[in-house]
Specification:
Blueprint (H helix, E strand, L loop, with lengths): L4 E10 L2 E11 L4 E5 L6 H8 L7 E6 L4 H4 L3 E4 L13 H6 L3 H4 L7 H13 L15 H14 L4 E5 L7 H16 L3 E5 L6 H4 L2 E6 L1 E6 L1 H4 L2 H7 L4 H6 L4
Parallel strand pairs: 3-7, 3-8, 5-6, 6-7
Antiparallel strand pairs: 1-2, 1-4, 8-9
The structure holds adenosine-5'-diphosphate and magnesium ion.
The site of magnesium ion has 4 residues, from α1.
């Protein structure tokens, strides 16, 4: 089976300063990968590089063995929540329907069956009762569930989520984790940027510890050990004891 994502020697810079460099990574299909690392480690930048939202200085990125543009429709992306414009008035169901556009094509109007599919995706995140609310009226956890529904509506094969659990309630977090594992069990590939290490070993099959470069990549058991974590969190040693890594 072809790898879901293959990254070779990738570097990204902002204004001449590299944010990530010498990144090598091969991720097989049917895994939930967690990308962890301190603030400013380049986690979001790595996702944006894979999604071609920032340009790379050098290196090669392949999605299912091809350039991204060949597979764009197979990729869903849920950005960090603070990057959305909440003043934009949009109903929950319409926000989910946007997820069907890559399938519909931009010139086709959504039909009844597309709306039904969007509604079904809302049901998967138990947000169907909120279908006709304005998205700005929802709590953080509810918003995140709607954005996951939108990603589900897209019928993608790879899902990227950037810090999906920040500022959300425990119930929403549990539900999202379960849905991500269900996707994995269907053979989909899920990549999650994650800040809080406390549940990293429960949530992810594999972890990529990033601090500008790949510090370690492997199973949670391989990555969540003090000798390894220390290399990325040099200035945050006490943090390791808080999360019980020992
Ligand atoms: P993380 O998601 O791990 O917190 P980021 O990928 O957001 O890290 O940022 C990595 C580094 O790149 C940081 O030093 C950040 O300040 C810088 N950076 C990120 N985005 C930009 C940008 N648009 N312009 C300039 N610098 C940026
Ligand atoms: Mg980030």
């Amino acid at each position: 089976m072809v790898s879901a994502i293959k990254i070779k020697d990738v570097q990204v810079s902002y204004h001449g300063h590299s944010a990530i460099e010498a990144i090598d990574l091969t991720l097989e299909q049917g895994k939930v990968l967690g990308i962890i690392g301190p603030n400013g480690a380049g986690k979001s930048t790595l996702l944006k590089a894979i999604l071609n939202l920032v340009s790379i200085d050098k290196g090669v990125i392949e999605i299912f063995g091809e350039a991204l543009k060949e597979n764009r429709k197979r990729i869903a992306y849920v950005p960090q929540r603070n990057q959305y414009d909440w003043d934009f008035p949009i109903h929950v169901l319409d926000a989910v329907l946007i997820g069907t556009y890559p399938i519909l094509g931009i010139f086709k109007r959504p039909k009844k069956k597309d709306k039904e599919w969007a509604y079904e995706c809302l049901k998967k995140v138990r947000m169907e009762e909120f279908a006709h609310r304005q998205i700005g009226e929802l709590s953080g956890g509810q918003q995140q569930r709607v954005f996951l529904a939108r990603a589900l509506a897209q019928k993608a094969d790879i899902f990227f989520l950037d810090e999906p659990f920040v500022g959300i309630d425990a119930t929403s977090e549990e539900m999202i984790v379960k849905l991500l594992k269900d996707l994995r069990d269907q053979g989909k590939t899920v990549v999650v940027v994650h800040h809080d290490l406390s549940k990293a070993n429960e949530y992810f099959d594999e972890l990529l510890l990033l601090n500008k470069q790949v510090i370690e990549y492997g199973s949670p058991q391989q990555v969540l050990i003090p000798e390894v974590m220390r290399k990325a969190y040099e200035s945050e040693l006490s943090f390791l004891y808080e999360v019980g890594v020992n």
